[in-house]
Q: What sequence folds into this?
């Protein structure tokens, strides 16, 4: 489990309202949130910021969540943490809009 207040989460969601709601919930718990509205932004942010955790939607406008997850893992998008922590944990989120 990651400790709130000490970890960065990359949130990838194309629907602004959903992204804002999730961001607010996570920020209330003390997490630092990076936001991307599509896969391209997520890949660029992950390369610059190396988040500890990635939460991604499955249905993005430019790439599906499974492909995004594979690309982020390939570029070690979560390489800041050790293998005993959350090294490559990328959680896809999905719900009906």
A:
């Amino acid at each position: 489990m990651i400790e709130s207040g000490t970890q960065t989460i990359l949130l990838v969601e194309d629907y602004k309202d959903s992204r804002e709601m999730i961001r607010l919930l996570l920020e209330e718990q003390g997490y630092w949130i990076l936001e991307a509205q599509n896969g391209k932004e997520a890949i660029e942010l992950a390369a610059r910021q190396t988040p500890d955790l990635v939460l991604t939607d499955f249905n993005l406008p430019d790439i599906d969540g499974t492909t995004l997850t594979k690309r982020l893992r390939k570029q070690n998008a979560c390489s800041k943490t050790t293998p005993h922590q959350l090294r490559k944990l990328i959680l896809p989120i999905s719900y009906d809009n």
Observations:
- Confidence is low (pLDDT under 50) at residues 81-90.
- The helical segments are 16-28, 39-49, 65-74.
